[in-house]
Design goal:
By secondary structure, the protein is an alpha/beta fold. The protein is 48% helix and 16% strand. It has two domains: 169 residues, Rossmann fold, CATH 3.40.50.300; 101 residues, Helicase, Ruva Protein, domain 3 (Orthogonal Bundle), CATH 1.10.8. Strands 3-6-9-1-10 form a five-stranded parallel beta sheet. It starts with a helix and ends with a helix.
Length: 331
Amino acid sequence: MEENIDIRSLNELIESKSGFVTNITTGMGQVIVGQKHLIDALLVCLLSDGHILLEGVPGLAKTLAIKTLSSLIDSTYKRIQFTPDLLPADVLGTVIYSQKTESFVVKKGPIFANFILADEINRAPAKVQSALLEAMQERQVTISSETFKLPEPFLVLATQNPIEQEGTYTLPEAQVDRFMLKVIIDYPTIEEEQLIIKNHIDGKSQTVRPIVSSNEILDAREVIKKIYIDEKIERYITDIVFATRYPDRYNMADMKQNISFGGSPRASINLALAARAYAFIKHRGYVIPEDVRAVCHDVLRHRIGLSYEAEANNITSDEIISEILNKVQVP
């Protein structure tokens, strides 16, 4: 009975603190047609203090989505276009000589913003990717001998184009693992596309104003830590991740030949964090299996290594995750 009272008061707390989620969703919906899954994924990452990797063909509102989100939150936004000649200093900053003061001064790079759009991250060489991913992981940047903390909240949205492979550098698996979610963006429906055309030929451009402060986001992150995850849900999460490593233990022996490596403990942690943030978005004080299933593909898709057999048979990591979700017992 005592637990019920706690859950009830927790629900009330989440209900009162998560009101801004609806405002952000509505604000983004005024600018972006469709792409509800992308908007939810951005909110999950923002509230979980994670980063997101988007994959999709050009023109699917990837840039517009993060620009709109940063405009709705009272924060700073920078876009970095990744190119083969980009240097780590172009992202992080460097030390320059000031004739005025006759000394060396630090010139901070575009990484010092709340929202970073790393456009076409796979176009830059490994050295630049490493510099960005280290900043993402450590939340700090070292320029010369000085270390600078990055602002909070800090969200990196990296995009990559799956079509063009010429002049691109594949992100190493260990670096891809730093991203909390990998979201595949698909084309809009025919009705949505018609609405997009209508909005553009009418010349309608919505002006977006900040409706949430950065402090409200940071407060929400603290509240999310109180969201209840039952031991059965924790076990469900570990079962899903373990099924990517040892499919034979979960009656999926035929799947073993398709997986070269499974999710790391970071996958389990991120699955739990993302499920909790998803429960918050749904204004709920506790996590249910549906929350885990809703974020599972985005959390695990880039953490499962496909074998040569799987690639030869055109089996995707999404198909493997769907199979795991069908086989692993739901609490």
